[in-house]
Amino acid sequence: MGCAPAVLSGLRWVGALLIIAAGAGTACAADCAPAATLVDRAICADPQARKAEEELDRAYAALAGRLGETQRAALQGDQAVWLERRQRCTNYREDTEIVDDVCVVRETGERIRLLRGEPEFSGPDAPRFLPVFYYRKAPEVLISMAWPNADGPGMAPFNELLNKSTAEMKVLPGVVDGPYSLDEVPALEMVERYRIQHASARLISVIFSGYEDTGGAHAFGSYYSVNYLPVEGRPLCLDDVVDPEALARLVPICRADILAERERRGDGPWEAEPAVRDGFISGAIIEIGGWSFDRDGAVIRYNYDSYGRDGYDCRIPWAELKAVAKMNAPLPFE
């Protein structure tokens, strides 16, 4: 769905080619009759899901109409990869594959916001955002990435920061510039997306997540954030927020969150000794790349294995964070 080649979507979409031919204002059209996949059939059968799909098409068409030829082609490739990934929104119940409706709604909503350049929370005087895409497909290689650029006074350093942070992900000499060679990596699939969790004149918080598969036994997940202070024109540092001795006060909050999440997921008891367990949590807290901020406060990511599979989020509400933060911490506590 959403204006990509039918071979990946399972539905017959004509929007992408029409947009390229006719420019902005051409809507995507869907014919659900040939829908072949479980996820696509579920979307076509649900009026609310169809309505969200129409929003997705409009967002795609509006963005494609604003982009130049190179970025429009990258958007089309990235959209096809996203559509294929959304087909994985399924679970199993008694050996029967069923659609994970929550996953479909979440993925579709996040994609609409990405295409529109919309933060999940937008505060006073937030800048406008435009997604930037990188897409490259070659034999045994697929790289599909997106990151935001901001439009507004003083936002050039933010854009440069994100352009640099994503540049190192573009790999393989002979395919794209980077640290790997084809001899070292016989196959590569790399996908990265973002969510703007918070955007205001005081703070921009962006989460990047994705995976890298080099053909081994497991793919490696990635999850990191970029927090930026527009007024000061620089990234947020952990030392801006809390003193080292205050970090210890966050450990019990995160421990409670993680243990509760483990129970909700049915992950079983945490086998590590309490001191070792709290050491792991402390290690996550001191990494600013694991911190992000949303409407309600700070979110600290704890990944429990080296493959970066679904980690746990520790949530620190603004009131609790303010109680341990430095007096002049540059955060939107109001």
From TrEMBL:
Record's keyword terms, sorted: Signal
Family annotation (Pfam families): LprI (PF07007)
Domain of life (superkingdom): Bacteria
InterPro entries, per database record: LprI-like_N (IPR009739), Lysozyme_Inhibitor_LprI (IPR052755)
Cellular-component GO terms for this entry: extracellular region
Signal peptide location: 1-29
Lysozyme inhibitor LprI-like N-terminal domain: residues covered: 28-113
Protein name as it appears in the record: DUF1311 domain-containing protein
